[in-house]
Amino acid sequence: MKILLATDGSSHSKEMVKKFSRTAFAPNTEVRIISVYDRSPQTTSVDPAGISNEYYVAVEKDLQKRAEDATENAAAALGRKNPTLSVSTAVIKGVPKSIILNEAEKFEADLIVVGSHGSGAIAGFLLGSVSQAVALHAKCSVEIVRIPDSNTIKTKEK
Fold first, then answer.
1. Distance (Å, rounded) from C-alpha 154 to C-alpha 89?
2. 53 CA to centre of own chain
């Protein structure tokens, strides 16, 4: 089985990786962990007075470093729980929705695993949810590991 796991290094993604690493995997399972960083179009097309190009280069390097850390940390977490897994990683610049779908096709993934921040339907509609886009357009199965927002109010059972 081939699994593509997409992480952005956020606390939600870390929790998703933690939950995913508890999975029992079939022999010869391959997991490709990717992190996609996207430099905002505003920073590439507008150069406000007083902000140098070096600033934008530094921002992009920081985004890339965070993506690298996210994949390395996810690979380490998976390896600790499942040392027999075949794990590879990649950091890719681009639009996360598109890159995840393209990488899944190139990797010939049987399953894509992404996290969800637990936002409601309205927030997903307004913000454009990566997990929703992947679920709608993937050519393979998609597992969305839902991690509720830490600010979610939990009601007490009666």
1. 36
2. 28
Prediction pTM value: 0.81
The C-alpha atoms of residue 129 and residue 78 are separated, in whole angstroms, by 25
Q: Measured between alpha carbons, how far is 19 from 11 in angstroms, rounded to an integer?
A: 12
CB distance 130 to 100 below 8 Å? yes
The alpha carbon torsion through 115, 121, 125, 126 (nearest 10 deg) reads -100
**DSSP annotation string for the chain:** -EEEEE--SSHHHHHHHHHHHTSPPPTT-EEEEEEEE---HHHHH---TT--HHHHHHHHHHHHHHHHHHHHHHHHHHHHH-TTSEEEEEEEES-HHHHHHHHHHHHT-SEEEEEE----HHHHHHHT-HHHHHHHH-SSEEEEEE---TTPPPPPP-
Pick out the chain residues at pLDDT < 50: 43, 122-128, 152-158
